[in-house]
Amino acid sequence: MAQAGTLTRLRYRFIPDHLIGEILSKKWIDNAIPFLVLVGVVLAFGALLPNFWSGGNLSMTARQLGEFALVCLAMTIVIIVGGIDLSVGSNFALGNFLALAFLNLAGWPLWVTVPAVVLICGSVGLINGVLIGYLRLRAFLTTLVTLIIVRAVVDMLLLKYAQAMSLSFYDNPWWDLMGMGHILGLPFSFALLLVVAVVGHILLTRSRPGWRIMAIGGSRRSAHNIGLPVKGLVCAAYTISGMLCGLAGLLYAARLSGAGSDTGMGLEVMALTAAVLGGNSLGGGRGSVVKAMIGAVIVLVMTNGVLRLGLNSGSGQMVLGLTLMAAVFIDVRWLKNRDKLLNKVYVSPTLVELPAPMKVGEGAFALNDRLGEAEIIGLGAVESPEDVILDAADNLYCGTRHGDIVRFFPPDYTRHEVFAHIGGSPLGMAFDAAGNLVVCVGGMGLYQVSPGGEVRRLTDETNRSPFSIVDDSRLRLADDCDITADGKIWFSEATVRYEMHDWPVDALESRGNGRIVCYDPATGKTRTMARGLIFPNGICTAQDGQSILFAESWACRIRRLWTHGPKAGQIETVLDRLPGYPDNINRASDGTYWCAIMGMRSPALDVALRNPGFRRRMSRLIAPDQWLYPNLNIGCVIRFNEAGEVLETLWDQGAKNHPMITSMREHKGWLYLGGITNNRIGRVRLPAADPNWAGPADYWGPKA
Amino acid sequence: MRGGLRGLTDRILGRGQAALTVPPLDGAWKPNTRLEDAPQGYASAAPHSLVLRGGEPLWASGAQVLGRAGPVLTAPAEVTALALSPDDQLAVAAVGAGVQIGEARPEALRALGCVTGLAFDAAGGLWISAGSTVNPFPAWSRDFLEQRRSGQLWHYAEGQLRLVAEGLGWPWGLLVEGDGVILSESWEKRLVHFDKAGRSQVLVADLPGYPAGLARGGSGGTWLALFAPRSPLWELVLREPKYRREMMEEVPPAFWIAPALASGRHFSEPMQGGALKQMGQLKPWAPSLSGGLVVEFNAAWTPVRSLHSRAGGRRHGITALGQHGETLWLASTGGDEIVAVSLTEEGQDATGH
Q1: Which residues of B267-277 are buried (b: 16+ CB within 10 A; e: fewer)?
Q2: pLDDT digits over A416-467, tens only?
Q3: Is B277 in contact with A633 (Cβ distance < 8 A)?
Q4: Which residue of B has its CA nearest to A502?
Q5: Does any CB of chain A come closer than 8 Å to the CB of residue B270?
Q6: How many CB atoms lie within 10 A of CB A47?
Q7: Which one of A77, A187, A378, A703 is most buried, by most CB atoms within 10 A?
Q8: What is the pLDDT of residues A138-190, one digit of tens each?
Q9: ipTM for the complex?
Q10: CB-CB under 8 Å, B270 with A634
């Protein structure tokens, strides 16, 4: 057998391809491009301008940023809800004028002025909100009108009061602090911005109103249809926008103490540029505070930088315009292609060098058709019985893909009933000492069904792996479980990277994506006990009760995890080089174990496993129906012992009744067969087996 | 230059020659079960090279030429092609024994290897196709995976053997047409007409399967047997030299990812996703290494009807066929059966009666 080169081995060992897909699937990856632009802009102007990095400049820029970024936040929240606010500039000017007028002319104290300004500017936003949210006017036109009217009002007021205002001067230490002071070494406005940003971020990402605003921006109609108060929230977004503008105006007033007709002129365009540049989608529903901040820094550094470079007056606007165009272009392309890119790179097959399989057709693997004559139970009545189990009263249970646990009644198993409905895809099952049925449910977690048929969730999450990029604490594909004598439930999660029905993709990858998890009913705690396993599938408590045996399907081997005793936590291989892919493992009556072989290794696939590049191109270029799979159209069950010897093999070679056997259970001289793609259960008589042996009694003593 | 550039952009963008898509079975190619539903025929081990003598089928199986009554002739080695001359002489090609015509063994034809098709023209000349100069006949799937284009077309008349064309992608079936011959070029998935001077004209391109035997149809048309369906997976494998090389080195030929005459017989065969039995059923649309498909073209080379045996069916790997009256005789090499399909019923089915 040819070997992969050392270089190839090292490459697949140390370059974690799969992380690229995981990083791309994170939401924050949207910020990657804006962030790179930010770094580029800062470095470029830092190099171009002589004293860019000086403390004075940085402090001044931070102070300006405090005002500007608040306006950008005002714009962003409205954009997120699916609208636009053009009136931020005039509103900002209004806030600036009012602050100076109240303090200098009216002589109001500071503690009245600040809330008054914020509220008045908020009420401008409220007018926008009522018109747009409740009366359904167009956001663009409405805020354009507000822009003009508020600007006109400010101009008229300036005409009347500007002279009087410029004569008086307001002196107050708090006012000076707002304009020129520092908090914890940070310029006041910048510190305020940080507080607003953190609160805003938490509200937007971690609170109900935030989520709802996102939902409305994503699809206003759907949000309405699911019963969200769309009108009120839209109105609230504009109001908040107005209030943030007022706050920014206040800071500006405190810093410069001057009002002119050009205050806040063109600010809406800069804020819009910043918001979009940061990656907030103009269509709504996709945006964040961080994006707004990144955009604000880029725009501010650029406009200041262009000004200080001494370019002529139009060029600042030109640079801004071109940047905006580039940002919109990249935004659209990114949105369109992100999922495509993710789909292309998420599947990342790895190098698998399986040892040569044991020879089939001779010895313990001699071919026969003993499963071909299986007695059929429940043909058409059950779909996808992944696992089958029998209780002490000889009732037969299986799960179905409809989320039911179906019970068949002895002696002939022709009658059946839906014992319980869980949902999801019930997979592996085990009985505990009290006769409760413990069920692994694909897509849901670990559940328990009492003898009376009541369903209870045991666990659906485990501790998150340290340093994992995606949150793997939720159980995606709990596969098979068994219970040790102390009542702890050990179960396998076959893969953390794919949903249950995507198991063939995990087979294509053949990476160690799975883990073994233990749930302790005494404490209610769930802990991951082993990770990095290659599709851990069947689990069976060993006869000595000190360890569990588990099947690693895509690695074609059966291993043992010590759960008790001096070697607890260690893993050792019991049976390697299987000619097929092992699935569930269960005890046999003579102290050995049954293991279902879901399919056979095809030599062409073994070669493909050694060629991850081939598999990756296969996954990208052709439809999953056309992918090379293990050969699963074969029924096969083996019996093995703890020494790792295969003792006998039962076949359904033509796969007439039992292709892809995923589970088998011995009970009183019969072997019951289940298959996840099948619509029947089978049973064959085991002439050599103990006719009185049953699983529950073997586990929990004769009383069970 | 332009061709080279086109080839390069095609490879980068995965289109044109580099596309992995296969033609859909639409219109006259629409799948049906007519081949599968035909009555039980005559069992014979891997029959191929079917010819009709007065309406009675003769076919090759191993080293024997058989008829319904029993063996007609035994060749020194495995027979690869048969043809019937206008004066009722049987031409037989066998592995390592060249071609014999009746009892005669012309010296010029002794050295011919890998003969895949024989056809007599009206003047008694013999057209001979050789699948490959590299691989022998039984290694045709290796020839496919190696993407050989070493097939040859010969014309033998009056003791002279003349090379008409070479560099062909496994020419298989031959059908005399006017002064020239129609040839099915399996690896190129097309039918080509050659005249005696070697001038060629493509008649049908981009077939949805790998073409084999040809036969004259009832009303100026032509029957074509396609011995295996096409599959995106094979197209992919053909673009993967390293994988292909390793597979050919390590895997027994029966378990290669390549077109096959029969499949689903052993658990070591490669299986594709769609072929997994669901709820006890193999879906008829499942991707399969083999299939049964014959198609009739009219005189304008438009397909008019097709007969299918789909995934999981019995009558796979049709390599040769012949029409007599309203009966279409088929050699199902993969199904070990000579099948007779009544075309009158087919005609009625087609018109809806």
Answers
A1: bbbbbbbbbbb
A2: 999 999 999 999 999 999 999 999 999 899 999 999 999 999 999 999 888 8
A3: yes
A4: B273
A5: yes
A6: 10
A7: A77
A8: 999 999 999 999 999 999 999 888 888 777 777 788 888 888 888 888 899 99
A9: 0.90
A10: no
